[in-house]
Amino acid sequence: LASRLPQVGTTIFTVMSTLAAEHGAVNLGQGFPDFGCDPALLDAVDGAMRAGHNQYPPMTGVPALRQAMADKVQALYGRRYHPDTEITVTAGATQAILTAILAVVHPGDEVIVLEPCYDSYVPNIELAGGRVVRVPLVPGSFRPDFDAIAAAITPRTRALIVNTPHNPSGMCWTDAEMRRLDELLAPTDIVLISDEVYEHMVFDGLPHHSAARYPGLAARAFIVSSFGKTYHVTGWKVGTVLAPAPLTAEFRKVHQFNVFTVNTPMQHALAAYMADPAPYRDLPAFYQRKRDLFRQGLAKTRFRLLPGEGTYFQCVDISALAVPERELPEADFCRWLTAEIGVAAIPLSAFYGDGFDQKVVRFCFAKKDETLVAALERLQRL
Ligand code: PMP
Ligand code: GLN
């Protein structure tokens, strides 16, 4: 059988979580919280199920959830998306991104990704028959290089994928960078896929510059969000896509034959829960405290901290560690760290097509304080 994805193995997140479980390691690899969500959200699911919300919802998503999303986006980013024609509920951001790509990318079209990038983007483009055009973020700072992006644009460029706050680096695009992107794309018909799943994890008082804030970008964008990240329920797999009506219409053509609908009771529960802005309003402070705890602990080790403005990830350089394993390729180092030191991490090389190895690994700090402390005790030995 000829593989549709010959270069693809099992995702690094699954590989590292499996390895962490085998070795009983503290799992700071795959990004997910090790603490529960608000019990009120669980009660809302229970209530929704008992109220009989257990059959197919509308293909586009439960109306109350699309309405709640429209109200929230208007309040936060100042743009009104019509719940009926411009908002679709998806099975997490993963399905949203694949569906957006399948909806707009024709075989032979070029899609620009900014490396390092989330591991699903490239296989998604390949499944659509698109050609992946990789543009590096500036090494070290992970900021966008607009000259390089401009140079990568051709008449075949169909889409560009931007992720802010950025997994794995934690960097957040500035207002000036979003404006620059707007100017760059203005003379083109390039579709923007704006992956904003970490929109509520931005620290030090920085705002999140959603593409929704910029009329020129919003007019060409699929904006992707994920309730899994925002409400500590990554296993629920519920997200949304905002896009102007013509893009949403194309999106839904694919969506209806992909998942058709997303589970009903969770949508009702999320809609009810969203009435209170406190959970997402308080999220930056909640995660900033964990980031600071983790960074302060790492500052006492030989790991060199990279800056982190957002997300629940912290990248570190391993090249000054006192152990010879610091010379290993990042992926081997992470396997060693998991098996021998008992802390799982993700190699940054997994986010590059050519496996670029810069001796940087990513830790997830969406963990109970005691989990972070246990990991730090082990990391301090290096
Ligand atoms: N995009 C990025 C940048 C992510 O980090 C993740 C979560 N790992 C996703 C998309 C997928 O989100 P979801 O779990 O909602 O499918
Ligand atoms: N997005 C999460 C991460 O980067 C993991 C999601 C997944 O396992 N696919 O760690």
TrEMBL record:
Residues 26-379 form the Aminotransferase class I/classII large domain. Pfam families: Aminotran_1_2 (PF00155). GO terms for cellular component: cytoplasm. InterPro entries: Aminotransferase_I/II_large, Kynurenine-oxoglutarate_AT, PyrdxlP-dep_Trfase, PyrdxlP-dep_Trfase_major, PyrdxlP-dep_Trfase_small. GO terms for molecular function: kynurenine-oxoglutarate transaminase activity; pyridoxal phosphate binding. It comes from Hydrogenophaga borbori. Its cofactor is pyridoxal 5'-phosphate. This is Pyridoxal phosphate-dependent aminotransferase. Belongs to the class-I pyridoxal-phosphate-dependent aminotransferase family. It comes from the Bacteria. Signal peptide: none annotated. Keywords: Aminotransferase, Pyridoxal phosphate, Transferase.
